[in-house]
Design goal:
mainly alpha; 3 helices
Length: about 50
């Protein structure tokens, strides 16, 4: 899950982000979000392609 990577770095995780990630059953998508979480400065960046 992306949350630990965000939370360890002090990035707040709003409820809407938490709910979207927790509802996702697509392991490939979760992997993408987890990779993005390593560098994200805001939780909403998980859902934004760069």
């Amino acid at each position: 899950m992306p949350f630990p990577a965000l939370e360890w770095r002090g990035v707040p995780v709003p409820d809407e982000v938490r709910e979207r990630v927790e509802a996702c059953m697509d392991l490939d998508q979760l992997e993408v979000w987890a990779q993005r979480a390593v560098h994200a400065t805001e939780a909403k960046e998980l859902f934004t392609e760069k």
